[in-house]
């Protein structure tokens, strides 16, 4: 069994004007497709062949850099597409909102801290909202395509929200203005999907 | 000491069609400038306030290192480009490349491969070690060879901002274009002054 490029749950232009169609098309059909193909190639002939992505990430420290980079790239982008929606934005409700308030003081404070983690990640990487094993929520960032599911992650847990801050995620529309891209991301966040992940 | 960007020795549109004016407007005018501004802000009131750039690179870490090294790296990159550049180096540098890599074409292939395979943001360098032996290395993010006792001779920026407006995900296409812009005379001088 090999990994296949997941279909986007909406059209390339569905997140306009916040995320432009051209960026979405290249990001999905070139970058994400590249990670998927390279992951399959990197797994061929290893003991991870046929394993699910969760198992691949959970033992990434024992395998090649190609498995780490492309396994992360495959998983992170799949998650990222699901965490955005043309009907997204606003703020979460109920126990999820309460959990964000309990952990970060207020929804605005959560947003500020997450945005800061995304803006200050130097080079390529991701910002994350992670649910730790004790149920608490934490914000962190990882370099390149690393993520909190990797066995050697500094902050380990379930990713609830992830934001791609590789320049390819925003350069065509925002160029050097990463903070503007981060603000636009909050206009399309799929809080329902994030809530599902929070509950699991 | 205020760190200022050198003026580019060519117009922003001079590297067309290989590197677009728009890319240089952002790359030099925004990214490079922001690193210099950030550095000047960060060193204010610290022991690095009056240090020269290389000194800061060798002794700092964190944000000061990142911004100082990015000022240096970009200057080193931009200065060695020129319109109607490219071709091959001559003299001692040519001989040294053939000696170290088998042929100029092999050097070019290896350097391009190092550029294409660097994962994430970073730089590819031709460097000389203490015995003046040439090597190709990759550094992540702001990494700079001086920190490993290596002397930089030429560099290629493979941060996505260096090429994304022009060639998007096709980094190898950008690397091909880079070879058309190299100011070999300047790089020969760097090598001869080792």
UniProtKB/TrEMBL annotation, chain A:
One of its GO terms (molecular function) is manganese ion binding. Its EC number is 1.15.1.1. The keyword Oxidoreductase applies. InterPro entries: Mn/Fe_SOD, Mn/Fe_SOD_BS, Mn/Fe_SOD_C, Mn/Fe_SOD_N, Mn/Fe_SOD_N_sf, SOD_C_sf. Residues 93-196 form the Manganese/iron superoxide dismutase C-terminal domain. Residues 2-85 form the Manganese/iron superoxide dismutase N-terminal domain. Destroys radicals which are normally produced within the cells and which are toxic to biological systems. This is Superoxide dismutase. It comes from Ancylomarina salipaludis.
TrEMBL record, chain B:
Mn(2+) binds at residues 27, 74, 157, 161. Residues 89-190 form the Manganese/iron superoxide dismutase C-terminal domain. SUPFAM superfamilies: Fe,Mn superoxide dismutase (SOD), C-terminal domain, Fe,Mn superoxide dismutase (SOD), N-terminal domain. Its EC number is 1.15.1.1. One of its GO terms (cellular component) is cytoplasm. Destroys radicals which are normally produced within the cells and which are toxic to biological systems. Belongs to the iron/manganese superoxide dismutase family. Residues 2-81 form the Manganese/iron superoxide dismutase N-terminal domain. Pfam families: Sod_Fe_C, Sod_Fe_N. Keywords: Iron, Metal-binding, Oxidoreductase. InterPro entries: Mn/Fe_SOD, Mn/Fe_SOD_BS, Mn/Fe_SOD_C, Mn/Fe_SOD_N, Mn/Fe_SOD_N_sf, SOD_C_sf. This is Superoxide dismutase. It catalyses: 2 superoxide + 2 H(+) = H2O2 + O2. The keyword rRNA processing does not apply. GO terms for molecular function: metal ion binding; superoxide dismutase activity. The keyword Disulfide bond does not apply.
